Amino acid sequence: MDTQTPTLTPHEAAIRRGRLLEYLSVAWMVVEAAVGIASGILAGSIALVGFGADSVIELFSSAVLLWRLREGSMGQEREHIALKLVGVSFFALAAYVTFGAIRDLALHHRPEVSYIGITLAVVALVAMPLLARAKRRVAASLQSRAMHADSRQSDFCAYLSGILLAGLILNAFFRWWWADPAAALVMVLLMLREGVQAFRGETCCNSTQAPNYAMPLTDSAPHADCCKPADPPAAGAPHSDSR
Fold first, then answer.
1. How far is CA 28 from the centre of its chain?
2. The total number of structural domains that make up the chain
């Protein structure tokens, strides 16, 4: 009896890696959302609450990508819907954070010091760029704009964690209460920019048709852009027809 495990095609292997990355994202975002929102509420920090709320929306984004990565002929048709949903998630979070930050500035609300929040921001600042890079590799393999958009959310989480860290430290050590809502408003600018790009489908490849020839992706090109095709094959060289 032959019990040898079937060999996966490169496309199937890429889908499996994408699923694994999304499961890791979900696990981390559950922790980040719970810690961020709880510690933000306790400290009265709109920046920290917004950071936790971003994790909730990234959970949604990861769920969308898991949906996108389900094997089957409908995968490509899910791409357009997935990008729209990622964009809407950014807009929703931007609206919430804007309201909270303006309210805190108007009321001169002074948040408490949150060392738990500072620790969370430091961990996210280190981990998120690594996760984003891994997602971009899979996005390039699949030529998936939705996966690339989700990798940008991981990048975005790293940017937010840096902004959050600055606001929390300024409040903790210099008692600059306004640094917290100010950091939140800076976050909003990034949210809106990423939301518009994802909603329009401009995150990667725009709406142009993908090339017919294969696109190489190796560890020597960790920041490979899924919008950039490989050099066309040499004249007379065989290549697969994807149509």
1. 12
2. 1
